Amino acid sequence: MGDVLTPDQLLTRPPGVARAGTLGTESDWIALGELDCGPRLLFVDASFIPSENDGVVVDLAPGRYAVSFRILGYGDDWRVSSLRATRGPVERRGAVLGKTWTDAGRTAICDPVLLGPWWDLDPDAAYARVASVLESGAPFGVAVFDAAAGAVVPFVESGFGDGEYPVVELLGPSGERVGAE
Fold first, then answer.
1. Mind giving me the DSSP string for 66-102?
2. Whose CA is closest to 110, among 136, 92, 133, 88?
3. pLDDT tens profile 3-22
4. How far apart are alpha carbons 70 and 90 in whole angstroms?
5. Rounded to 5 degrees, what are φ and ψ at 52?
6. Is the Cβ–Cβ distance between 68 and 86 less than 8 Å?
7. What pLDDT sits at residue 3?
8. Do residues 99 and 165 make contact, with C-beta atoms less than 8 angstroms apart?
9. What are the per-10-residue average pLDDT scores of the chain (181 residues)?
10. Among 83, 77, 56, which Cα is nearest to 140's?
11. Domain ranges of the chain
């Protein structure tokens, strides 16, 4: 996009107001972190982690996935346009796997099985860890449960807020699923 923003600038730059008829310009992918997946990845409203019933579960090969997002700029306004987790090169987008929704204006991805022990042990304390990051007011972030194990919850503001968003598979050069967006 014209002025490529760094993650630090994204944290400090207040969004403007998109004007009707303004065409947006999309940024390159911005790294958010990594998470482990094995073999399920959940796209979900950040307030409903780790409920598989409230999001879209994607079956992926176990391993560490890079998490990144894009923003769409409309003059002095910007919005998150995409969130994805990938392992290896992405050749193309594949099928729509479902739709996730958000009522909190933030979308997260995580491995629900990896996070399960924290919720089983103390659901209130586990949610408090996520809520403290969400309530920071940042347009993106990562709640960390166990960084070494990749037990993290990356999240982004979701476009223009609440709504439904498609989750699509990402395919590698041989047609194998290497992630989701």
1. EEEEEEEEETTEEEEEEEEEESS---EEEEEEEEEEE
2. 133
3. 445 556 555 555 566 667 77
4. 15
5. -70, -20
6. yes
7. 46
8. yes
9. 51 62 82 90 90 93 94 79 95 97 89 88 88 83 86 86 91 97 97
10. 83
11. 7-180
Residues with Cβ within 8 Å of residue 100, at least 6 apart in sequence: 43, 44, 45, 55, 56, 107, 164, 165, 167
Q: Which pair of structure tokens corresponds to residue 175?
A: 């047609």
Structure tokens at 102: 């958000």
According to DSSP, the residues that pair with 45 across neighbouring strands are: 107
Q: What is the DSSP letter of 118?
A: H
What is the pTM for the complete model shown?
0.86
With contact defined as beta carbons under 8 Å apart, do 98 and 167 qualify? yes
Beta bridge partners of 156: 107, 140
Strands 106-110 and 151-157: antiparallel
**Do the beta carbons of residue 33 and residue 92 sit within 8 Å?**
no
Paired residues of 181 in beta bridges: none
**3-state SS assignment for residue 144:** strand
